[in-house]
Amino acid sequence: MPGIPGLAELLERSWAAAGPAVAGSWPPSQRMDRTALLQFCREQRLCVLAVATPATRPLVVPVSFHMDEEGCFWLPTDPGAARLRTLRRNPQAALLVGQGLDQEHRVVTARGRTQVHRPMEVPISVQDAAEAKLGDLRWAGAWVALRPERLLAYDPGSAGSLRTSPG
């Protein structure tokens, strides 16, 4: 799509703009590149979406997601969900995908503008990939697309297999 930077460029630009606390906590040697980010997001089914209600109250919800090759997060959604009403008023959102415990963890954070789509507006390639990952999505009466303006991805050395909480 014109005007949308490549995923590798977006990662690079996001890290360059990160503040000293984030940059110091997530050193360059432990940052995911485009390939590692896409692989991690293919493995994960859920993310946490954060939006601000009109009363500026935070609304945080777990949602299913699919990330396309360009780095857009596609969130199939029930058409009556409160997050849709909120995003129609304020399209800014953030999300987090995380896995693991202690030093064995991986984290992706993204923030940017969203667009709400009817199912017939979602590219067939996105729908097919999301269904292969998430299962039957005929229930999704709307899809939220979050195209990150900032995208950070971190892996301190999990080697792809992480210790997770038993509960």
Write a brief caption for the model:
The chain is α+β, with helices and mostly antiparallel strands and 167 residues long.
Commentary on this structure:
The chain has five helices and seven strands. Strand 5 and strand 6 form a beta hairpin. The longest helix has 11 residues, at 7-17. Strands 2-1-5-6-7-4-3 form a seven-stranded antiparallel β-sheet. The protein is an alpha+beta fold. It is globular, with a radius of gyration of 16 Å. Helix content is 28%, strand content 35%.
Write the layout of secondary structure elements.
Blueprint: H1 7-17, H2 20-25, H3 34-43, E1 46-52, E2 58-64, E3 66-67, E4 73-77, H4 82-89, E5 92-101, E6 104-117, H5 124-134, E7 142-154
Antiparallel strand pairs: 1-2, 1-5, 3-4, 4-7, 5-6, 6-7
- Main β-sheet, in a few words? 7 strands, antiparallel
Number of strands: 7
Helix-strand topology string:
HHHEEEEHEEHE
What is the overall number of helices? 5
The strands making up the biggest β-sheet line up spatially as: 2-1-5-6-7-4-3
CATH class: Mainly Beta
**Level-2 CATH architecture:** Roll
Uncertain ranges: 162-167
Determine the fraction of residues in helical runs and give it as a percent range: 25-40%
| C-alpha Rg (nearest Å) | 16 Å
Structural class: alpha+beta
Oligomeric state of the chains in view: single chain
Head-to-tail CA distance between termini = 41 Å
Coarse morphology: globular
Number of domains: 1
Q: Write the CATH homologous superfamily.
A: Electron Transport, Fmn-binding Protein, Chain A
What integer is the average pLDDT? Answer: 87
